[in-house]
Amino acid sequence: MARTNPAQFIQQVRGEVSKIVWPGRREVMLTTVMVFIMATITAIFFSLVDVGIRAGLNGIFDLF
Length: 64
What we know:
Layout: H1 6-17, H2 25-63
């Protein structure tokens, strides 16, 4: 693999950074809200699963 000198490396890094498309404020806010909504839905789902498993195990243990 060919080695590049530091000046070429910096030039290549700048070229790659210029290709980045940064999201706008609206897109960032929308994505953030969607992440919070999905985290809330996931937390509720796993809480319900936990309650169901706990009730099932309590029912089984009550039989013994």
